[in-house]
Each structure stands twice: as C-alpha cells, then as structure tokens.
Amino acid sequence: MGIIPAVLHKILEQRLQQAVALVLPGADTRSVLIRPCPDPKFGDYQTNALMALAKERKMNPRKLATDVLAKLDVADLCEKVEIAGAGFLNFKIKTTTVAGILRDAIAGKHLFYQKTEKPRTVIIDFSSPNVAKPMHVGHIRSTILGDSLGRVLRLLGHRVITDNHIGDWGTQFGMLIFGWKIERFFENDPAKLPDPIAELERVYKMVNKSCEGDSASLALLRQKFSYEPGLNLPTITSEEVLSRARAELVKLQAGDATNRDIWNRLQAISKQQFDRVYSRLGIQFDYVLGESFYNPWLADVVKDLKERGIATESEGAMIVLSDGKLPPQQDPFLIQKDGKWIPNPTLVQKSDGASNYATTDLATLQFRWNGGKWGGQPDEIIYVTDARQQLHFRQVFATFKRWHPEVTAKLAHVWFGSILGEDGKPLKTRSGETVKLEALLDEAEEIAFKVVTEKNKDLPEKDRREIARVVGIGAIKYADLSQNRQSDYVFSWEKMLSFQGNTAPYLQYSYTRVRSIFRKGNVDNASNLAESLNLAEPEEITLAKRLLNFGLVLESVGEDYRPNYLCSYLFELSGDFARFYESCPVLKAEGTQRATRLALCDLTARVIQQGLAVLGIETTEQM
Ligand code: ARG
Fold it and tell me: What is the whole-number distance in angstroms between the Cα of residue 361 and the centre of ligand 1?
C-alpha cells in the first residue's frame, strides 16, 4: 500500500475530483465532497455531488456516475465503489486500509485529523458581556460556543484571535455615574462589599426605573444624597433623573476627571467578576477590546459614511438606507409591510449627535479589517450572539461592504436561541429574577458533588470536589454545545447530569472506563501495540471506522460553526465502544487480538479526551 492518510476522506475526495475533472474538463470540482454514509449497509463514505453536476449540465446522473467510476482509481484503499440511487457513489473501505490508519495513530503519527494546508486568520468576537451588570445565562451560550469554535479552529491549524467585545460604553454609564454619586459610593466603596455587582445592579435599576417613571424607584431615589447645589432630590421627577443621567454621560465623554474615575472603578469591579467566571470556565481571550476602545473613531466613521453617500441625514439623525442593489428578500435595509417593501434603515448617529451600537460595530470592523492590534488581515470574523441581533449584524455587514468594497473577509453571525426553564419560558429563578452565571456554576458543582458522592462514597472529599467541578462545569457546557444552537432548549439539571444519554458525564465516564482497562491490564505504553494491529470482529471494525471520522467531523464543526456535530459524534463513538467492549473481551484476549483491542481502547480514550477538550470540557482519571 502507498501512503497512509491521516484523513481518508480527503484522499478519496482528491481522487474523486481528479476523476470528475477527466470526465468533465473545466468543471468546478470544489463542491465534490465525500461524507460518511448515513447507513453503513450501503458503504462507509458517499458522495452526492455528481447528481448536482449532472443536473447543471442536463446530463443523466447515473450515466455521469458510471463515467466517473470508470476513471476513478481508489482500488488501493477501497474494497468497492458502487453507484446507488439516482447517482450516488458509495465507497466501501478495505479493512486493511482502516488498520493501517489505526497503526499510524497508535504509533503517535496522528489522531485522525490533519492540520489545514491553508491556515486562515479567524477573529472570534464572543462572550462580550456588559460592564457593571451580572453575567447572565444569555452570555453563557456565547461564551461556551465561541470558546469551543476557537479551540476547534486552532486544533485544525488556523490562526485564531479571540476578542471579548465587552459593553463598557453607552447610556447605562450615565445612569451608573449618577447612581454612584447619589449613593455616596466614594465614601462607601461598593468594591468592598461581598457582591459589588449586585449592588451596582440595584443602583442601576433604581435609576433606570425612575427614568421610566416607576414611582417606587423614584421614592427610593428621592431619599438619596443631593451631591451638588441645584440638585433637589426630594422633589426630582423622572424627566429630571433622565436628563441628569444624560448630563453625567456627556461629562464622561468629554473627559471629566471624576466621571472618568467612577467609570474606571466600574470597570475594575466588573473585571474581577468576569475573570472569576472565565477562570472557572477555563476560558481565555487574546484581547479584551470593549466598546469604549473604539470611541475615538466613531465621529470619523459617521463623517466618512456621509461623505461617501452611504449614510444620509434624516430628521437630524444619520441613517443608512438600501442602495437597491440586492433583491428585496436579501436586502437588510428593507422590510415587508402589508405586502410592500418599505425602508428599514440603520441608525448610525442619533439626532443628539450620539453614536450607537451600530457605529461602534462599524468602527470595530474597520479596525479588525485593518489588522487590529495583532497585525494581519482576517480571512474570517465570527460574531457569537443571540438570535435577536440578526438584523443588526446583517445591516452592519452590508454597510461595511458598501463602505469598504475591497473586503474579502467572510463575516459570519453565529447566532443562537434561548435557554428555557422547565415551563418553556426563558430561564428565571424561582423568584422571577434572571439567572446569574456564577450562581448557576455553583449549583452545577453542588449537584454534581451529590451525584459523585453517591457513586464513590470512599473517595476523600477533596477528590470528590474536584471530580464534581469537572463534571458540573462539563455538564453545563455540554448541555449547551450538544444542541442545535439555533433552537431554544430547556435547561434541566437532571438531564444534563445524567450518566446516560448524550451528556458530558456519560462521555467523561466512558473515558474513565477505558482508562481503567489500561490500569487493570498494566499497560502503560500503547504505542508499541502498533505492530500487531489486526481488525477482525465486526464490532472492532465498526469502532475503528468511527475513529477514522474524527477529523471530518472537526472540519464540519469549523465550517458550519456547529459544535453539536462533534457532540453527536462523541456520543456515537462511545456507543460503538460500549458494544465493542461487550462482545470483545480485552484483557482476557491474547496475542494480536489483545494488542488490537487495547489499541482500540487507547485510541477511543484519546479521541474522546481530545474531542471533549475542544468543547472546553475536562476529563478525570476516575469518576
Ligand atoms: N455586549 C453585547 C450584548 O451583551 C454583545 C456584543 C457582541 N459583539 C459585537 N461586536 N456587537 O448583547
């Protein structure tokens, strides 16, 4: 046999593309792809690409498949290739090919994936919570998803830059500064409280609700400290609160020293909270460039957009309207109303001259496109936020492309649905508050500790706590990542911490099981099992073929931004392993059979561990 590939589907793809090029000279073969066969009855891999090529050319698809098959040379790797259905090609791999790839893997040459030959520079904008507010469950999906996408793309050899675009600028700071002053926080530093964020949240709510005319909040606010002459708190109205808050914001933006100082303190308090959460989740960012970082450029962005005729004035504000170049269905600046398409503009400057979220995102995009702080233009920028921001990003991307037509980077909004409570409504605490991320992590570890204790009464508490941490945090992450990100899902402790089904504990447990076989068998070095690897039993072959697909799955996670593919894969792999282990004794076997089975155990454990690692999930040696 010739070279043994780490990633079989790539080699098959190349050969298939060559054959197609011989039959259809000049055809674009990039879309000729190989995927695992949905039903192993028909084969191991499959392509459906020939049907599309035939359709484009008005050819008979089966005839095209026959012609391509005649030119296809995969006899060294495949037992057979068959035409099926309307023009599918199904590939059945030789068991010796599979064994060869496993032999290389066990010898440490690869783990069924390959680093890309074309590394891309990918910026991932994720997590991005808001300063002086508690991180809530809504931020958890962005944090977990974005982190996992970064890990997968890095593993595949791409240059990944993670950037936490925190909300550290904007109208909430006017309210917070006003609140800070009337609470005399310079004297009673909230940073010294056990939960400073909760305190800031209380103050923010009091001010914000007073602005909205809430009489209870206004009554509270009226009892506070009138920090300057002319501010008569006991009789203040909601309109006056609003204009005070606005005035504090204007002062902050103009560089007023006191307001700047308060702003810095708010940042510091938030940073502590963010760092605590990120360290518990094992998440790191290359950059934390919040909205405030882009403030110096905002006026120029608007000016430039105006000069180029992209933004126009409307009632004192600056807006971006459709340029009419896209079909209405795809035009983010149009919206359908009563059967007619009407303008749906993006606001880039309010009538009072203030910039907004869109302006900041345009400045951010320009900065990133110009190489950011890291140097080097991105090939791809990924934004991970909830579904409600879809229109925002469609408009920002479209505006940016009009502003910078030279842009070649792929701009992707990776959006996700909501986390729901058991009642099917957005997740809330029993008292109706939004659930806070830190409380959620505490609870996860607490429940996991009970589960772990039930299983291992004899382990010292310290060990049980550590296992509970890995299991609890892993369960929360996995519950999120294993879902189709675009659907809402119901948050259930019972389900996510179950040792059965598609859960983190189940996979973590599969891993420890394989590891314990190794311990029992006293095998410490798996790499010398390579020589005698020989696949015979159907369960061995099924497991081995599943291992082969690890790289293909990682690639599709990176392409579609969907870690749930990897979760399903790991779950199926664990199932294959369980069936194998049931029918193929490992330690009781002898000679080649024993070595083969130990090798399968070892590779399964390594793939599960690496797979969980790129989901951001740890493993332990015992559970
Ligand atoms: N801070 C925003 C929020 O909490 C998310 C920011 C996402 N990133 C961006 N570049 N707009 O909703």
Answer: 9
